[in-house]
Amino acid sequence: MKSISNRKTLMVNMLSVTWVIVTATCCATVTCAGGSAPWAIAVFPSGDEFTLELAADDASRERGYMFREKVEPGEGMLFVFDEPGSHGFWMKNCRTALDIIWLDGDFRVVDIAHDRKPCPPQGDCLTVFPMRAAHYVLEVAGGTARRAGLERGHRVTVIAEPALR
């Protein structure tokens, strides 16, 4: 009698574990298929790591960090473009200073606009451009690139799901 009870308990436990695995897999698939934004991490040569939001469509690239009160250390946003280009950025409706880091297709730093301040509510808002074409643009909290010693030519390691290229 005890072995039947043990088998039932074992069967219930196995079904519970299977249900958790199936549910997690389905949720992950739905999330990756469009339920929420894809993810990425970046690692500077200094070892500083950043969890990234991806801005890979026109709407998310246009919105960027607008209206955010601050960007925490260890956070960033990676703008993904279909083609390399001289992608200009401005700080309109931004509420915190940002470093704007242009990266080529191999994630090498093409240019950096350090510690860009928000534009005033009224008046001109200047657009900054890289010195060379870039495929990606990484934004992190203002002052981060200098503190980490990031310079033109350095390679930033980017790991993303789904993979970028």
Describe the secondary-structure layout:
Blueprint: H1 2-35, E1 39-43, E2 49-55, H2 58-63, E3 75-85, E4 98-103, E5 109-116, E6 134-141, H3 144-148, E7 157-161
Number of domains: 2
Largest sheet: 7 strands, mixed
> What CATH first level of the largest domain would be assigned?
Mainly Beta
The gyration radius over C-alpha positions equals 22 Å
Strand order of the largest sheet: 5-4-6-3-2-1-7
Percentage of residues assigned to helices: 25-40%
Order of helices and strands: HEEHEEEEHE
Provide the CATH topology of the largest domain: Jelly Rolls
The N- and C-terminal alpha carbons lie at a distance of: 60 Å
Mean pLDDT: 79
Broad structural category: alpha+beta
CATH superfamily of the largest domain: Protein of unknown function DUF192
Describe the structure.
With 165 residues, the chain is an alpha+beta fold. The chain folds into 2 domains: 1-36; 39-161, Sandwich (Jelly Rolls), CATH 2.60.120. It contains 3 helices and 7 strands, in the order αββαββββαβ. The chain has helices at residues 2-35, 58-63, 144-148; strands at 39-43, 49-55, 75-85, 98-103, 109-116, 134-141, 157-161. Strands 5-4-6-3-2-1-7 form a 7-stranded mixed β-sheet. The longest helix is centred in the first third of the chain and has 34 residues, at 2-35. It is globular, with a radius of gyration of 22 Å. The chain starts with a helix and ends with a strand. The relative contact order is 0.20.
